[in-house]
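Quick one, C-alpha cells below:
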C-alpha cells in the first residue's frame, strides 16, 4: 500500500471516530440487508459487543498499516477464528461491500475516488489474506 493511501485511510478513519458507533451499526445493518446468511452467525449475541470488536479491529488495522508482517499474522489468526464461527469465503465479498458502503455513508462528501480506492485496496489485502488462510491448500 502506498503512503498516500495509508494517509487517506488514517485521516478518514479519524474523521469517523466521533461517530464510530454509528459506523459500526451502519456496517452490520447493510451486511445483514445484503447477506441475510451473515446475520445467522450473530444469532443470540449482543450486537453492541460485536460493534466494539469490529471497531477495535479496524482501529488496530489502521494503526498498524505500516507493519504488514504483523498485520498478516493477526489477519491469519482472525481468519482461523472466523472459520470456527461459521464464516465462509462468500461472506468476504458482502463484508467488503458493506464496509465500503458504511464508510461512504459516514464520510459523506469526504468520500471521493481516492478515498474509495485506498479503502478498497486495504479491504482487498485484508480479505485476500483471510481467504487464503481459510481455504485449505490443494497441495
Amino acid at each position: 500500500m502506498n503512503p498516500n493511501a495509508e494517509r487517506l485511510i488514517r485521516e478518514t478513519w479519524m474523521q469517523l471516530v466521533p461517530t464510530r458507533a454509528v459506523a459500526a451499526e451502519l456496517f452490520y445493518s447493510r451486511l445483514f440487508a445484503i447477506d441475510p446468511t451473515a446475520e445467522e452467525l450473530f444469532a443470540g449475541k449482543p450486537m453492541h459487543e460485536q460493534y466494539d470488536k469490529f471497531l477495535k479491529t479496524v482501529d488496530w488495522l489502521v494503526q498498524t498499516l505500516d507493519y504488514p508482517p504483523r498485520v498478516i499474522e493477526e489477519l491469519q489468526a482472525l481468519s482461523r477464528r472466523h472459520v470456527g464461527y461459521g464464516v465462509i469465503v462468500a461472506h468476504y465479498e458482502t463484508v467488503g461491500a458493506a464496509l465500503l458502503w458504511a464508510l461512504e455513508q459516514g464520510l459523506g462528501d469526504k468520500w471521493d475516488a481516492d478515498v474509495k480506492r485506498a479503502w478498497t485496496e486495504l479491504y482487498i489485502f485484508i480479505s485476500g489474506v483471510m481467504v487464503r488462510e481459510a481455504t485449505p491448500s490443494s497441495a
